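Researcher: Here's a chain I'd like modeled. Treat it as a single chain, no partners, no ligands.
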Amino acid sequence: YFSAIPQLQWGTQYKIAVRAKISTTWGVFGTACTIGFICNPAVCGVPTTTLRTTDCGKINFNLSTGYAVANTVAGATLYEFQITDILTNTIVSNQSRTSVNLYFNTITPALLSTKQYSVKVRATISGVVGVYGSACTIGFVSISRDGNETIVENEIIMDASINESIFNLSVYPNPFNQQATLFIQSSKSDKAQVQIFDMVGNLVWNEQVNTNTNVTIGNDFATGTYIVKVLSESGEQAIHRMVKLND
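Model: Modeled as a single isolated chain. Structure tokens:
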């Protein structure tokens, strides 16, 4: 973790070689690899982002299982989605996510299938918040009287195939001051084992939780960086980093 090596600099490239130790014996360093860091966002700013091209202007999303994806910003640790009711021009929700995915069934207050919305996204890098990019219009399929979605068969099949593989971990806000919310998005609605480690490798939290449910964490954590590891009952895994700031 680069935050543990304070002498590294923004906007600089380095070569890294690694060796391993077994018992008391060190091996030799392997082939060096080049890595580099982006320009300091406090100096260069944060690049703008928006919803990806395939999601921008799409008005037949599935409100229950669908999601939109923002274009990735290198080095970003947080994405904030601002959602506006197009008809009233009123901001209905600001949603922060640690990934580029915005799952519609996790938004509060809940969105309505009868409305269209304008969505803007901005990214945060190392605590520096960027500006919102261009707005995109999204909408949802309507529901027929028998409860079925009035959507072409191909679209239903496509959404179902995507939903089969959904397993996403988000922690927000991140960084946080007092507590954070952990949410495990899963199409299987099972349980998951959550383990949280500090940067020394100590296990500080170990609980089994339900997927698709908000879980509050971090109240009793010390200031620092933590690794969140999740393993579902069906064998899916996710790993995420979170940071607690001073209270």
